[in-house]
Amino acid sequence: MYLSTVGRVRHKEGKRPPLKAIGGTVVALGAVSLVTDISSEMVTAVLPVYLVLSLHLTPAAFGVVDGLYTGATALLRLVGGYIADRARGYKAVAGVGYGLSALTKLGLLLAGGSAPAIGAVITLDRAGKGLRTAPRDALITLTAPEEMLGRAFGVHRMMDSTGAFVGPLVALAVLAAVGSTSQAGFDAVFVTSFCFAVLGVLFLGLFVRDRRGHVPPVRLPAMSLLRDRRVRRLLFAAVVLGLATIGDGFVYLLLQRREDIAVGWFPLLAVGTNLAYLVLATPLGALADRIGRLPVVLGGYAALVVVYLMLFGPLAGAPLLVVTLVLYGAFYAATDGVLMALAGPILPESLRTTGIALVQTGQALAYFASSVLFGLAWQFWGPAAASRGAAVMVVLAILATAGLLMVKDKR
């Protein structure tokens, strides 16, 4: 069997599986993610401009903060995943993560203009994300039929990206209502974000069903996962891809600087990306089920190469913004959920959450390293050279991933 064809499904001519077949739990988790992403993307949309333009952080310092936001607490994914598997309490562990992230929105108010305090709060917020992500994705893989995992993750990510699309618009509306991009305006964004985060926790408690009684108890040590060559190859590929991916904040800051976008309109860059993600997540998930998940993932990273090159390419103005943001959204739609759908069938049910957490941890740690290195490259070599270097790294990562995951499993 080839890893590149794991999860490939052929449906009968003219027939498509009904959406309800993916399960109510997937839709409920999508609703939780939708509301929670409104909260988190409100903060994400204003954070780069808040830190760099308001607090005057250097690109290297922003790289450290951005790395914290994407990967510094990655090891908690393993802790949360292992606890969820041992206790078979996926919903409870995810709930702790959602609750912790909600509280950090108030922490941003207390941090004020202190960059170290903001970094600490962001670390706690990402700790919450680290705890909740693997149990949530494991619930999806345990609920939806294996042959429909691409579609199930596509539907979930579509709902998730709906929240990501709405979040920056809400942040923009709040800033407009307050009439300020000063500390008072950002504080209003943080308070509103907290309210949405609490709503997400309530949705989880009321509408998501656990799978406690449907999964066999853990009888193998967690490290037994690494004895499987397929898991090792998948983990290494995830790390390589993570090392080649820079944070969203850098992409948006480079676009803002090149096109001289006003601070008040900065959140709209995330809106454009998330709109493309929203539109493409479900069809690309379904395509992955039909033709194979690996080709779709690699195609997404090919789109990312173009994004990095276009940051200092020939296009300018509206064409640059539209093409770049559409391709950036396509990258996320082709990789985020599809990679988890690729991983799901490889991992045993009893250690499914731990395995997903292992893959996500490797990628998150790689993101952290990538953000720090890109920030340093920007500061010392300039943004153009740093962006083109990132594009070269993605090309190398695509080749390495194809070589790793298209290897025939002789077991």
TrEMBL record:
Domain Major facilitator superfamily (MFS) profile: 25-411
One Pfam family, short name: MFS_1
Subcellular location: Cell membrane
Membrane topology: Multi-pass membrane protein
CDD domains, A to Z: MFS_MJ1317_like
UniProt keyword Ribosomal protein present: no
Transmembrane annotation, as ranges: 21-40, 60-79, 163-182, 188-208, 234-255, 261-280, 292-312, 318-343, 364-381, 387-407
GO cellular component: plasma membrane
GO molecular-function terms, A-Z: transmembrane transporter activity
Matches recorded under InterPro entries: MFS, MFS_dom, MFS_trans_sf
Keywords carried by this UniProt record: Membrane, Transmembrane, Transmembrane helix
Protein name per the record: MFS transporter
Organism: Actinocrispum wychmicini
Source organism phylogeny: Bacteria, Bacillati, Actinomycetota, Actinomycetes, Pseudonocardiales
